[in-house]
Structures are given as structure tokens and as C-alpha cells.
Amino acid sequence: MGAAPRYPSVDALRGITVAAMLLVNNPGDWGHVYAPLLHAQWHGCTPTDLIFPLFLFVAGVSLALALGPRIERGDPPPLLARSVLTRAARIFGLGLLLHLCAWWAFDLAHYRIMGVLQRIGLCFALAGLCAVYLPARAQWGLLLALLLGYGLLLAAGGSYAPYANLASRFDTQLLGLHVYQLEPGSGRGHDPEGLLSTLGALATTLLGLRAGQWLRAGNSRALWIAALACMAVGYAASYLQPFNKNLWTPSYVLWTGGIACAVLAAGHWAVDRRGWPALGRAFGVNAIAAYAGSAFLLYALAAAGWLEPLYRHAYADWMTPRYGPYLPSLAYALAFVALWWAVVRLLDARRIHIKI
Hints:
Layout: H1 8-25, H2 51-72, H3 77-105, H4 116-133, H5 136-156, H6 166-175, E1 181-182, E2 189-190, H7 198-216, H8 220-237, H9 250-273, H10 281-284, H11 287-304, H12 307-323, H13 326-349
Antiparallel strand pairs: 1-2
Helix pairs in contact: 1-2, 1-9, 1-11, 1-13, 2-4, 2-7, 2-9, 3-4, 3-11, 4-7, 5-7, 7-9, 8-9, 12-13
InterPro entries: HGSNAT_cat
Protein name: DUF1624 domain-containing protein
Keywords: Membrane, Transmembrane, Transmembrane helix
């Protein structure tokens, strides 16, 4: 999409979220994971539930930083839109490929269409088009319409319960067996990265897009005000519709978006202005490559039958009798992140930045 001024704080924030994704997605034993590293079972918001919205928020910030200068110098909108859609299609396609590998490696009963990269691709495409074709006021209007409209849709669905909510019913009708979960016996399905709940995820990305423009303008005060306002309104809204990552409820958008604004403002002050180390930057400049590469490694180990023996012999057998079952699971996850930290550090040292 062309060169643009880089903010080390944004690269660091993106990298920290990717490292956190690897940490929570790769425990040695899913039956023994420390509570903060688990998603809320349904309603609620744990530290792990902050990771994906933070990544989408940073994707919106990155769009503002990449597209803003090109729009201001008069690059043709169709050219900008084509670059956005091309990259979004590659991200979406990579997600489909990853799920194909998972379906084969784990001998899954059905192929899942939607997923993390697919959601990132959709939000990147739609937010990018908004950046190209809509002025700031229209972007704010769309963000408000998404929050109110999606909230009303969920309320009109009559239930926020698993499988019975409108988002799950919509995804089951549209995707059939190709969702993440199927309820035994009923045939009802659910996908935490489904299509209808992507409306909420798009709102998160648009909030990041606007925050990115504040960052470009050096308006840290607006970031802090937005952080406090979003968190306050989101907390109040949670009494009407609870925080729920699976449904990506409007209260969840605002609560996590407020936290993201605060983290961005703090990171900008510490890294860009005060010169603190940009921890996580190596992950940030190879974010999608690290995420996809780690997934391919996991599927390869599973297909070869090495995943369970590796964990058992290297961690569980000698750690569990002394420390209990939770510490070896965490140690495995930390070692997995450390391995990929070494990979991305090596790539960055050689100035290899893989763009999808």
C-alpha cells in the first residue's frame, strides 16, 4: 500500500497483541489454563478478551497512517481501494488455507469458513473503503449507526444465549455446517468470528481508524478523552447488553475500544515521544506472518503426531508432580511464544518484513 511514516508505538502494540494471541492459543493442556488466559465462557470480559479487539483497533490505526498521506496528496481513490481490497483478499484467503490445514491435521468433522484472519480481512476491507471514500463526519456516523443498529438487531433477536441468539441463528442459516461449533442433537451452530457479529468488529476497526487520525494530528488529548468516554458508556451499556466477545456486543466494542485508546495514547507518549524501547516491534512488523507461521507449525506437529508427546515429555512429565498441571501448560505456551520471538527477531535483523 506504499510507504508511510511509521510510529514505533503502533508496531509495538500490534506485536504485543500477536504475541498474546500465540500465548493464549497454544497452551500445552487446554484442561489446565490459568483463568486470565481463557476467554469468558459467554458473557464477561477477561484479559484474553481484550486481545482480538485490540488487534482490530490497531488495524484501523494502521489504515489511517498508511492511507491518510496518500489521500492528502491526491492519489486516485480507485487505486487506493484496489490496494486495500487486494490485501484484504490475501488475508482472507490465508485464513481459508489455515482452516484447510487444521481440518486435515486434526481430522475435523467439517470445514470452518470464518475465522480470525477472515474477520481481519473483512474489517480491513470495509474500514479501508471507508477511509478512502468517506469523510470524517460520515465515518463517525457509520460508527454510531453500527453500534445502535447492531445493538437493536441483537435485542430484536429475543435472546443473548448461546446458539439461540440472532448472530448464531444467522450464521447457521448462511454457513450451515461450516461454523465453529455445532450443538449436539439440535443442529444449531455458532461461530465467534461469524458474519453478523462482524458488524461489531467493524465498529472496533472504525474506532481505530479515527484514533489513527488523532495520532497523525498529534492529538493525544482526544485519545485520552475517547478512552474515558468509551469505557464509561460501554460500562453503562453493559447493563442493557452484556460484554460478550462471541457476539461482539456494542458494550464490548466501547469498553475494549476505550481501553485500546488508552493503551495507544500511553504507548505513543512512552515510545514515540519519550524514546522508550518499542517492545514487541519485531512481532509487529511481521504480524500476520508470525500468526500464520505459528499456526502452520502447530498443524504440522499435530499431523505428524508429535504435539502431545512433545508436551508430555518436555513439560508435563517432570513438571506436573512438582508444580501441578497448570505451570507446565503455561511454560509450554511461553516457550512457543519465545520460539516465534526468536524467528521474528531474526527476520527483523535481516530487514525481512513479510507482507501478506
